[in-house]
Design the sequence.
């Protein structure tokens, strides 16, 4: 028994929890993601209630993605040059303000499409600086040998928020709207009172996350050795681009990230609300339940990645590509679903595969990139991941008018085929066999 307890105490997941900074990041990240989930449920539901148009819903979501994608590389450069903690706090202050203003507009029945467009753009711009900072801060507070465990804990808690957040948001909207519908005063503003409450919870979660981020102490918050403090922002961007260009494996992984996010996120975030509104009797609650299934699955996959030993480097690429193919199979099945809970189960299995891949790939990226380029390299991967998502959401909002089932099945088939094809690439199969990429040249 003592030997077993000793082995448990020596497990990286246990040892890394002795790091105070990680604990603060862990809790703050959990609340930050919880706030995001309330926003991601309340906003599309608000657009559907105001316009009744799925294409408009796609446009609003896409408008958040445009600045997120366009400024993601700038956010990575800022992260490398300045304190990532400050970037995280500033971004959440902006996102909190957007949530408060949306709650005010909904409560006072002053929602207009132009304001939804503008606020969505602002929220996306804040995301562009938040995401690279969140990914780059972890290697600054934990040792390399604990990165896999640290990623599992932080991302696992984030996914717990994703698992709980959508369901809570859907329930909040449904419960408060139902209560208001029984009120003596029945009008559009009262019908949407639940949405206003969801936005206030969204803003409150961001506020709590800010308090925890403030307590993080970094010994070397800004530049790491190797970065010229006198280099301008364009020079910093160019340095990161040259590094990625010189690494063929990273180029292929950029492509993998881009097409998987393009083909999966659009159908999920546009198609699931439509399914919930048309096929499933629970309405907004069904939307929340299904998306919570995605979060629960990802949480499980992340936990498994943290508990199991590292993947065999010779087989790492093939395993990750095979797991990503499961998302395509899930989309195909989801297109024929008529039951909320079966749909949530399918999405949960998709999330399980994705969660495992996320932890493995995030750790691989953090170990592969030099510390002084980490923010820029990670931001380029995020750019590949989210850059085409606005196009996907807008396109799905249009295509879904023709066939909901066709959208899910078509996207799913392409996901399966492309991931299996990529698994035969030598650079992908051997991605776990680390070799130092060529250093970038020609940097001014």
Sequence:
């Amino acid at each position: 028994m003592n030997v077993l307890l000793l082995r448990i105490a020596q497990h990286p997941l246990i040892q890394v929890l002795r790091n105070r900074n990680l604990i603060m990041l862990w809790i703050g990240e959990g609340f930050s993601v919880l706030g995001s989930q309330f926003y991601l449920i309340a906003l599309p539901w608000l657009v559907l209630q105001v316009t009744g148009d799925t294409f408009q819903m796609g446009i609003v979501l896409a408008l958040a993605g445009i600045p997120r994608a366009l400024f993601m590389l700038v956010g990575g450069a800022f992260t490398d040059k300045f304190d990532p903690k400050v970037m995280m706090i500033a971004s959440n202050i902006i996102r909190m303000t957007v949530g408060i203003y949306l709650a005010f507009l909904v409560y006072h029945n002053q929602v207009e499409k132009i304001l939804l467009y503008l606020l969505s753009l602002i929220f996306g711009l804040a995301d562009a600086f938040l995401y690279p900072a969140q990914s780059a801060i972890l290697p600054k507070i934990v040792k390399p040998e604990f990165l896999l465990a640290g990623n599992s804990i932080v991302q696992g808690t984030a996914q717990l928020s994703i698992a709980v957040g959508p369901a809570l948001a859907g329930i909040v909207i449904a419960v408060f709207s139902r209560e208001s519908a029984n009120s003596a005063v029945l009008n559009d503003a009262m019908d949407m009172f639940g949405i206003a409450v969801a936005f206030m919870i969204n803003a409150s979660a961001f506020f709590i996350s800010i308090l925890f981020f403030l307590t993080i102490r970094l010994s070397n918050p800004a530049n790491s050795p190797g970065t010229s403090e006198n280099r301008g922002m364009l020079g910093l961007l160019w340095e990161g681009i040259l590094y990625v260009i010189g690494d063929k494996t990273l180029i292929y992984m950029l492509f993998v990230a881009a097409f998987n996010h393009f083909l999966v996120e659009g159908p999920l975030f546009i198609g699931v609300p439509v399914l919930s509104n048309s096929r499933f009797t629970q309405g907004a609650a069904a939307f929340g339940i299904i998306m919570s299934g995605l979060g629960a699955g990802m949480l499980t996959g992340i936990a498994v990645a943290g508990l199991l030993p590292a993947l065999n480097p010779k087989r790492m690429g093939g395993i990750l590509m095979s797991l990503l193919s499961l998302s395509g199979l899930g989309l195909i099945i989801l297109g024929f679903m008529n039951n909320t809970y079966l749909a949530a189960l399918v999405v949960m299995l998709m999330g399980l595969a994705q969660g495992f891949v996320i932890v493995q790939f995030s750790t691989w990226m953090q170990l592969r990139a030099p510390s002084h380029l980490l923010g820029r390299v990670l931001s380029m991967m995020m750019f590949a991941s989210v850059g085409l998502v606005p196009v996907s959401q807008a396109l799905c909002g249009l295509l879904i008018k023709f066939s909901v089932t066709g959208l899910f099945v078509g996207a799913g088939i392409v996901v399966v085929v492309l991931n299996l094809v990529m698994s035969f690439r030598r650079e992908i199969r051997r991605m776990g066999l680390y070799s130092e990429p060529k250093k970038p040249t020609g940097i001014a």
Remarks:
- The chain has 19 helices and no strands.
